[in-house]
Every structure is written in structure tokens, then in C-alpha cells.
Amino acid sequence: MLTVYESQTEQGTSWTVVSPIVFTYKVTETRHLLDPSNDTLLLGHITDPQQLEDVKKSNMPIKRFVVVDQEVYKIYAPKLIEYLEANNVLYKILSLPTTEENKTITMALQILEEVHNFSLDRRSEPIIAIGGGVCLDIVGLAASLYRRRTPYIRVPTTLLSYIDASVGAKTGVNFANCKNKLGAYVPPAAAFLDLSFLQTVPRRHISNGLAEMLKMALMKHRGLFELLETHGPMLLDTKFQADNSCLQAASQATRIAIGTMLEELAPNLWEDDLNRLVDFGHLVSPSLEMKVLPFLLHGEAVNIDMSYMVYVSKESGLLTENEKQRIISCMVGLELPVWHEACTMELIQKALQERLKHSGGLVRMPLPVGLGGAVISNDTSCEILHKAFVKWREELSDGSSDSN
Ligand SMILES: NC(=O)c1ccc[n+]([C@@H]2O[C@H](COP(=O)([O-])OP(=O)(O)OC[C@H]3O[C@@H](n4cnc5c(N)ncnc54)[C@H](O)[C@@H]3O)[C@@H](O)[C@H]2O)c1
Ligand SMILES: [Zn+2]
């Protein structure tokens, strides 16, 4: 409900506008997204039954602008084109090298030029993004700029984007050598998730996504932790594909990961609350990731951060020795690095100081408590941080788990 308050001062009149903004968006897991008989990709974002019926009855062809990660396009182009042709869609496909290095405003502008030339109706013709987190983030930002906000649809094709980058509201590109410095909080009209894209994802990128899944498990869900502990290696081997042994574990793991992620994100879509469990693994890792770029993938850097924090938790009395070892073994089973020589005490201290600056003067350090619980600590002493570091290095720096 919009409210306008008028007040008079000596300088003149002043109006204060209070306008709560409501975002509604759907995250839908589906199968066979590119099967020509499945209309989810074209119509699944429409929530009003009357509008849906009108579109289905109309003789007007559907028009769609589609941006696809170049690597994904190499594999899925025939299926995608067949899908669009079979559904009589007027389309333009833009295939782009959406790599982390190209995640820039220049690429967002390149997309916008093409969108503009294609001339779409911003009310009824959402832009479709198909790819990993990089592609979804760039297209999301471009869409949020075009005519001030054009709806867009996310189709994640990596595990990381399936459970993380496609479920929240954030878009962005890198800027001034900093990750995601330009961006907007504009959720998609819908995200359509199809696990079958994962079958072509390189094994290392499946591990990468499992790190973000493990993050949610450690912070919020013991059942998900146990599932990853028991079935993680098999999920990695099968790439979440639905053969008999994998079907249940794969769908349970993704459902819990997305559900817990949304529980955390939805009440805090604009990240006003700085106490965020989803920040676990993200305090030290940004500095580490940028320092060794391109050697560690995002999830790998996150895992190294989480591994160190597990030792901090242990030293703080929040984890038993047995729980600590179970977590580290689970990480190793997911083929994630648990230590890195570039993650020095100096880097950790600098990263935590940086965190203080951007987080309202408190470090707000999420720490695991037992398996599947967490606290946000503001008073972990330097002594504990040091003791944890020494123990961490002593136990894990033998090189066997340092993949880079
Ligand atoms: N918006 C958010 O909330 C959010 C959350 C987490 C991460 N992110 C962003 O996501 C990005 C990382 O995403 P990512 O890990 O998906 O990386 P990515 O987009 O770089 O994809 C990883 C690699 O896999 C390839 N690929 C993608 N799908 C494939 C498929 N089905 N088959 C074969 N190859 C495929 C890509 O070409 C790329 O080489 C980062 O830039 C990060 O900032 C955003
Ligand atoms: Zn992350």
C-alpha cells in the first residue's frame, strides 16, 4: 500500500513516499525442459490463469530473446533450436563466452544492444538466460537495466547455479577488479531447473557446486549433511543423473539445498540484515579466490574457508573432534580442497578486517555448531583464530588435499 506523507518546513513542503515493493517469483524443478511438448520454458512464468489461457488461445507467435553460454550452446544448440522451431517461436539466440573474465559491464551492454535491435515487448516477452552462474548474473543485470526492468528467466546449467545463483534475487558483473561490484537486486520472473543439464558438466564443477550445498547442510540441515556424507561421492560420479540408485538422493539433496537457501534469502532479499548464515565460507574466500585467480573455483575457495572455520568452531568448543573429522572427511569425499598454502594467517586477518568494514563494525562470523546448526559469532578471539590456524595447517597441509 503506497503512502505519501506531506509535511511543511520553513523551507517549503516535503513529501515522504513509503512504497513497499513486493517481488513474486517461482523456482521450479522440471524434467525435459527442452522437450518440444513441455511449455514450461515459454509459459511457466505466467501465474495468472486468465493470462495463460489468453496466450495459449492467441494466434500470435511467441517471441523470445535467448542468451546462452557458448559452451552450453555447443552441446545443446540442436535441442534448443528444435524446441523453439517446434513451438513456432520467433527467436534470436545470442551465444556468448560468459566466462568469469568476461563478466563485465561491456558484455552486459553487448547483450543490451542486441536486445534493443530485436525489439521485444517488456511486458510479455521475458529474456531467457541459459548457462552457469556467470551467464545468469550478466543477463539478469542487463534485463534489470533495459527499460528499467525487463523480466528475465533463469535456466541454470551447472550445479552451483542450480542450487545457488538461480534461486536468489542478485544479479551482477565484476568491476574495478572486484567481484560483482555492479549489480542489482532484481529476481527473475522464474527460474526453471532441469537436472539433466548437469550430465555434461565437468566433474570438478560438480564438486564446486557441492561446496555450496555442504554450506547449507552445515549451517541448517543435519539430514542434508548425512546425505552428502553417505551419497556425496555417488552424486559426484553420477552427476545427479536419475538412474535408480541416484534418483532419490539427487532430488532430496537439491530440494533441501534450494529450500534451505530460500528460507534464508526470502526474508532478506535485499540483504539488509547483515547476520547471514549463507555467508558461511564467504568471509576469507573472496580474498583467497582473487589472490590465486584463476586456480581456485568459487566453491573450492569457499570450501577452504569452511574447512578453516570448522577448526575455529572446534577450538571454540562448538564442535567435537569427531564432528570435525566427519566434516573434513565429507569434504574430501566430495573432492573439495580443504587447505591451500595461499590461505595464510595474514590473509585471514586481512579478510576479517575487510569484513568488519562492510558489515557494520561486527565480524558476524557464521560458525557450525554440531552437525547442521550454527551461531553467528562476533567475539572469536585472536588467540582462537591462531590456535585453529596452527592445528588446521598441522593436520591438513600435507599436500594430499591441496588440489592446486
Ligand atoms: N547471483 C547469485 O546469487 C550468485 C550466487 C552464487 C554464485 N554466483 C555467481 O556464479 C558464478 C559461478 O557460477 P558457475 O559455477 O555456474 O560458473 P560458470 O558460469 O563459469 O560455469 C562453469 C563452467 O561450466 C561450463 N558449463 C556450464 N554449463 C554447462 C553444461 N551443462 N555442460 C558443460 N559445461 C557447462 C561453462 O561454460 C563454464 O566453463 C560466479 O560468477 C558467481 O559470482 C551468483
Ligand atoms: Zn558462494
Automatic annotation (TrEMBL):
Organism domain of life: Eukaryota
Protein name: 2-epi-5-epi-valiolone synthase
Species lineage: Eukaryota, Metazoa, Chordata, Craniata, Vertebrata
Residue ranges of every copy of the 3-dehydroquinate synthase C-terminal domain listed in the record: 209-353
GO molecular function: 3-dehydroquinate synthase activity; metal ion binding; nucleotide binding
Family annotation (SUPFAM superfamilies): Dehydroquinate synthase-like
GO biological process: antibiotic biosynthetic process
Stretches assigned to the 3-dehydroquinate synthase N-terminal domain: 95-207
Entry cofactors: NAD(+)
Keywords: Lyase, Metal-binding, NAD, Nucleotide-binding
Gene3D superfamilies: 3.40.50.1970, Dehydroquinate synthase-like - alpha domain
Pfam families found in the cross-reference section: DHQ_synthase, DHQS_C
Gene name of the record: cetA
CDD domains per the UniProt record, alphabetical: EEVS
